[in-house]
Amino acid sequence: MRPDDQALRLPLPTDSPLEPPAEWERLRRQCPVATVELPSGDRAAFLTRYDHVKALLTDARFTRPKAGDGAARIAPEGVGGPAADGDGALTLPDRGEPHQRWRRQVGKYFTAKRMTALRPGMVRTAEHLVDEMIRRGRPGDLKAGLGFPLPVYVICDILGVPAEDRDRFSHWSDAFLNVTRFSGEHTRAAHDEFVAYMSAHIEAIRARPGDDLLGMLVKERETDGEGLSDQELIATGMGLLVAGHETTANMIGKMVSLLLADRGRWEGLLADPSLVRTAVEESLRFDANLGFGMRRYLTEDVEIDGELLPSGTTVVCSMPAANRDERAFADADRMDLTRSPNPHLTFGAGPHSCLGQALARTELQVALEVLLRKLPTLRLAVPAEELPRVQGLLVGGLSAVPVTW
């Protein structure tokens, strides 16, 4: 690793919100296990090569840091306030059999069959949102018009919560993912409000369980007595609401921006809409603005690239840097909409990979299909380098996507 006095500071700077940091290529080549300083001032190891990142993410021994580990923090007061790194209702089992039990129970809802059943409703919602954006006139904000509301409506329906509360969910989600945007007092207050809201929602479901995900989990517990605990139910609802608000909403905006930044990409999809699936996967791989990466806390010594990382080290796995590794992807810095196979690491890998990735993929495909069909003349209303970035949160993204047609 680099000597501590030469630690790089995260996030690494970029010239454009759609371009990768120039430092990635040099790190992969010369310093694949680097020392970085996080916004908190704490230091961690930083991995940028595909094989290294995948190996650590798939190693079941190591998970995200827990309270009391003494791990490097991303934010000065802990990531997302008191609960994301510490105790509280957001804590979910993430090691061993309890984690696998939780994944089995929640994962039963996110099957390919269920995603297929949800798809027609997603298409109708996307069409309505695009029609409304057209009605409001040019220019428009693709994130506000489609990128944000589509996944919000979908996840609210899946969890059985009213979409009318989406502004509150958005605020709580931002507080959960806070790095430097809010004070610690603000994030703690938002966390407490979020917990109280979801607790009341779980109680209402218990009185009249429906066919949504949380209703299914409540009924399972009442039927066999071995379902998720109240804390796990609350944490599941909160975690999925956050994921539905920020990650997919941001990715829709980034995907469309990447495709419009080079007109040939958009024209290629108009000429051959069958490429939508591979285009979505390549957008996921090519996205350089994913956020800080995934932290892993080493509970024993690990050797990476001939270097021993001692137990107690916090490692930041940069999935977007790994996704640009020439050792894993031919012409890694070229966006190839026909690329297949495409084993990118955007959703993680192994036992802790993203449980909702089938849902995210379906939403991205639907958003792109509807835009190609309804707005074939869509284009960015500002140069790509002027697209405004999300600031101060764990996730990377664009705060707005100005478009015209």
From TrEMBL:
CDD domains: Cyp158A-like (cd11031)
Name of one Pfam family that matches: p450
Keyword Iron recorded: yes
Keyword Oxidoreductase in annotation: yes
Keywords, ordered alphabetically: Heme, Iron, Metal-binding, Monooxygenase, Oxidoreductase
InterPro entries named among the record's database cross-references: Cyt_P450 (IPR001128), Cyt_P450_B (IPR002397), Cyt_P450_CS (IPR017972), Cyt_P450_sf (IPR036396)
Gene3D superfamilies, per database record: Cytochrome P450
Superkingdom in the source lineage: Bacteria
One function term, GO molecular function aspect: oxidoreductase activity, acting on paired donors, with incorporation or reduction of molecular oxygen
Region: Disordered, residue numbers: 1-21
UniProt similarity note: Belongs to the cytochrome P450 family.
Name the UniProt record assigns to this protein: Cytochrome P450
